[in-house]
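Cross-posting from the chemistry board since nobody answered there.

I work mostly on the small-molecule side, so proteins are not my area. We synthesized adenosine-5'-triphosphate and want a rough idea of how it might sit in this target. Sequence and SMILES are below. Is it possible to get a predicted 3D structure of the two together?
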Amino acid sequence: MPTRNGSATKKAKTEAVEVAAHAEKVAILDAGAQYGKVIDRRVRELNVECDLLPLDVEPEKLAPYKAIIISGGPQSVYGTDAPKYDDGIFETGKPIFGICYGMQLLNHHFGGKVEKKAKREDGQFPIEVKTECALFEGVPSRTEVLLTHGDSVSAVPNGFAEVAHSGDLIVGIADASRHLYGVQFHPEVDLSTDGKQMMKNFLFGVCGFSGSYTVVNREHMAIAEITQIVGPVKKVLVLVSGGVDSSVCAALLHKALGRERVIALHVDHGFMRLDESKKVCKALEAIGVDLHNLDATSDFAQAFTEINGRQEGPLDEQVSPEIKRKIIGDTFMRVTQKMCTDLGIHADDVYLAQGTLRPDLIESASKLVSGNAECIKTHHNDTQLVRVLRDAGRIIEPLKDYHKDEVRALGTELGLSEDLVWRQPFPGPGLAIRILCTDKPYAPAGREQVQAELEALTKELGHVDDFAVSLLPVQTVGVQGDGRSYAHLVAISCRKAAAKGGLALSPAQWAQLAEFAKAIPGRVHSVNRVCLLFGDAVSGLVDEITPTTLKQHVVHKLQLADDVVTETMKKHKLMRKLAQVPVVLLPVPFGIAGAHSIAIRTFITNDFMTGTPAIPGRQVPVEAVVEIVERLTSGEVAGLSRIAYDLTPKPPGTTEYE
Ligand SMILES: Nc1ncnc2c1ncn2[C@@H]1O[C@H](COP(=O)(O)OP(=O)(O)OP(=O)(O)O)[C@@H](O)[C@H]1O
């Protein structure tokens, strides 16, 4: 569970017998950029353990580490705001690899010169490297790297050699005798083609690490930690959503403690995917976990909660996203608390396990993810029993050293099914937030003006003969600045018969369409999301809606449509390529009484903070999209009108619609 709970964790740790320190560790000193996290991931991917420490760490604290990496950062080494550090970090005699700002700091510290250049370099550039330098062994003499810098090294210190250049700029320095290396570029990112080889060269060639921090070894370490913290008698409670993190957590606990001592609870709130709760139970039971599955569908549908002194509910009559979330969160707490009471679980006898991952802990920027998502996680963690356990410091987080892909590798190692291990992230409230509930069209004042701006933009960009644009009568959430806000959803549809309502668009036309879709929110600010609407052209404002709430038949309609999309994605082997594919029920009937429409949001991202839609013909085969649309409009799922394909990057559109 990603909710942070530093003090409880600390307390739990003090109760634990220290797990033997791993001698082969790298310290990554964070000079203030987001890149520290990426370096952390890269080092671990190479089976070397590492910790992220602040740049101003006291040198004595570096004693347990065999080598040091200094990360990039936004400042200038000469700036008054340059991050502080202790000179002693350079006097430990350990190998040091300075990256970007880290190289400038290394150069500056040992007496070289760093200057602001007239031109910044930002992007992928070819550089020349000296292949005789240990850092570049096995790397071609010309290679592409990611550079983002305004300052540059203009003179290297005594004892250092220039080992890489971008034009006449120095982008690599080395003092092999003291094991000191620096690069101006970012070897840790994918855009640096041979970056991984360079990281390997430093870790294995220069520092002599053995690469023993493997999934299997780490599994043993995690199991040792669990058994030491929990001791020989107590049990562990784990709430299993069916997501990767909590499932792997349950599997690991089971391996560490055995079936009798792991109390795994799953709640079917009625908004899971088609038959998903059954599949989750089957997958966990297959490896021996005793999963208690509670079907609470009607409890949730009929649930009320108090908001600002008012009773709100039942859930299946609500249209407000906030009220829906609050009822679901509160009901989840109530239901799990009751389940614990019914099972006779006493706070004194158990620990609570949470599937917190390493990025959850590293990422102080997690507030950006979404205020509401935080809210539901807090709810999940906030039952009376959980509060007692937290106050007592009896929380364990066995996955806190793992990144998501490492959790997947561990899940596979533990024998979990491929389906479960590769399950895409799914929101806690499930399909409930993928059904846009409403009792009236979204028609704020000034809507005609927005429609007119859209039409003018279509004309200006030369698309008027090919595409119609239309404001739909719903709003969806998006990212604006640091916050989230609701705004208009726009549908683009095809005018030309040859396009067959969008089904016959070529990859080149899709690419052009994606550019058009991307331009719209940039120019028409009250729009945050744009879709291609398959079928006949729709121009002008759409006013008609189908009144929609979370009634069971409505949820079931989305479950069936979602299943068609998932099946097709699996068939075309797209599940691993696309980070997430929300399938959303829109309350727009497009002339068919009582019907709904479906929006498909294919989303590609590594960090979930930003992302892009998968463009048909580029990241997803056009045939896969056509297959989905044809199946969904063939009557296979009753009561569907139109299908829309979301073409919005994040920002401005969030992954989810509400
Ligand atoms: N339906 C559910 N039944 C039982 N526990 C749940 C359920 N939904 C969420 N939880 C618990 O709340 C935690 C946080 O929920 P959230 O949906 O935010 O998960 P997550 O961070 O994506 O992790 P996961 O991969 O385990 O789903 C889960 O890890 C799980 O412990």
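Reply from a structural biologist on the board:
Welcome over. Reading the output above for you: Residues 1-22, 364-379 have pLDDT under 50 and may be disordered. The pocket of adenosine-5'-triphosphate is lined by residues 1-2, 239-241, 243-246, 265-267, 269, 355, 377, 380, 425, 428 (CB under 6 Å). Happy to explain the token format if needed.
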